[in-house]
Structure prediction request, 388 residues.
Amino acid sequence: AIGLALLGGMVLNLMPCVFPVLSIKAIGLVEHARGDRRTLRLSGLAYTAGVLAAFAIVAGLLLGFRAGGTDLGWGFQLQHPAFVAVLAYVMFAVGLNLAGLFSFGPAIGLGQGLAARGGHMGSFFTGALATVVATPCTAPFMVTAMGFALAAPWPVAVLVFQALGLGLALPYLALTFLPGLARLLPRPGAWMETFRQALAFPMFGAAAWLVWVLSQQTGPDGLAAILAGMVLLGFAAWAWGRGGIVVKVSAGLALAAALVLALREPTLPAPATAATSAEFEAFSPARLDAARAAGKPVFVNMTAAWCITCLVNERVALSSEGGRKLFRDKGIVYLKGDWTNRDPQITRFLSAHGRNGVPLYVYYPPQGGPVVLDQILTEASLRESLRP
Prediction:
């Protein structure tokens, strides 16, 4: 399980969730690659410490809530609209910082550190942020490791989660400790300022995606609130860079108002209780049991709006013309469970199949037991899995 967790953490670096944060560290790596080796190595260690600390917190929360009788899964924090809103603010603010709209003074390391200019404390917080944004993604090898961890005694579980974190940090750590790899990086120069500003756009993209997730969780009212909050946050960043006590107070008030909008109690959209599409029906244990009792083949898709892997699989396989035709031709009842907001029924279904996160794809043939499909789907793999 530790080996699988280590591999899964390394693969997480290739997932689109983590790319925006890793791109921030790229410029810091280039800046220090041909400089002081000790500084570069300490930066790598600080980044790794941030990743491991964040994974320890996530593991502690998962295990603590589970010991108290509450089932949570990987990415559980993204089921809370307030957390999604604040994370969208963070991504947006980091993008504004990289674009040069504002900067913090030397006494504040976090903002500059996230832009690879704030020393080892900045590297630490960048590692923590990388962990937070990695949670919407699940990678190959991770599922088996996490399923084992959450059923094991807590010291073993924490060790597996730390191996997952080490895998996430390992590529960057290797670049900071192996001079031969660092020498392959381009030389610092004037191009770096343009590169730094260009890195703002992956952050803006991540913020836009999180706003879309929030719109799925809270509906139009929540979307309006977060967009208004981003306008206030943009004003706060602009005002902070103007100087003067009155302007800085205005920036602080705008930031406070943005946080109030982010932390407001959302009006959640009503959950779907009937068929929501001609292609699928909303999942419920009763509907699953009824379809199986009628001798029909059933395909269950457990997904969430914040799960990028789920969205890619939807587009590539499940919602493609070939995928829809496959379900129609075989008369398969397609049930879709939406875990964007917390749903105990879905959490129990995941746990029953040894999972604690999405995506999860389970096929129930007319006869025989359920078949759990791979996390990465294509039309070809879907067709192969649904063979009689």
Notes: The first strand starts at residue 281 and ends at 282. DSSP finds 17 helices and five strands in the chain. The CA atoms of residues 153 and 351 lie 17 Å apart.
